[in-house]
Write a structure and sequence with these properties.
Length: about 220
């Protein structure tokens, strides 16, 4: 029994080490930032040749919830370009080593600023338990670790998308509430003006009109 506990402890330590290595192997940047009107914001990432990358973005608040997005390689070649997109995802493989640039532009907007979220993933997550240098199949504990790891990644993705939807829905609800409040105030003012006008109009119907007569002497 003690040897089994020791083996289980070594297995759990190995699983933790592999998890740490997997977390360091792939890079991911998730940023939410404010993009003012008539503004442009660029980001830069150093990527090695042959690395698979994914850019995903979504406009959370502001205007028509759209933004311009542009992705360039180190030579300045445009890999991705979309105008006035609310959300999108683009996957590519780096053709060469260097600094890749992706920009978000709100230069077409004159009055409204935007809140933009993007997730830029560089590289793929390696398998939790690499198959090289293994002569045996995965143990039951290792298989359970793999299943839990994949389930947790899915949970994180779902939570991120639900938070974005909640933030976007809250922004739209607040904007609609503001418009309803202004419309109600406008209706109240119009109703008050019409009521006062009707009072003065009815009063003019019942007011006595005095006429003066001038006699001309003979």
């Amino acid at each position: 029994p003690s040897s089994l506990r020791a083996m289980a402890l070594r297995g759990s330590l190995a699983a933790g080490l592999v998890l740490a290595l997997a977390a360091c192997a792939a890079r991911a940047s998730e940023i939410t930032f404010e993009l003012p009107d008539n503004a442009k914001q660029c980001f830069y990432e150093e990527i090695a040749q042959g690395t698979k990358c994914t850019l995903e973005f979504q406009v959370i608040t502001g205007g028509h919830y759209d933004v311009d997005c542009r992705l360039e390689d180190p030579d300045g070649t445009v890999l991705y370009k979309e105008m006035k997109k609310q959300y999108d995802s683009f996957t590519f493989t780096a053709s060469r080593n260097g600094t890749y640039k992706f920009c978000f532009s709100n230069e077409f907007s004159t009055f409204t600023h935007k809140t933009v979220y993007f997730d830029f993933q560089v590289g793929e997550d390696p398998p939790l338990f690499p198959s090289e240098n293994r002569v045996t199949a995965l143990t039951q504990m290792e298989s359970a670790c793999v299943s839990i790891h994949e389930a947790l990644k899915s949970v994180i993705d779902y939570q991120t998308h639900f938070r974005l939807r909640e933030a976007q829905g809250r922004s739209r609800a607040e904007d609609l509430n503001t418009r309803v409040a202004y419309w109600s105030i406008g209706e109240a003012i119009i109703l008050l003006v019409v009521s006062v006008g009707q009072v003065f109009l009815l009063k003019s119907f019942f007011s006595d009109k005095r006429t003066t007569t001038t006699r001309v002497g003979s």
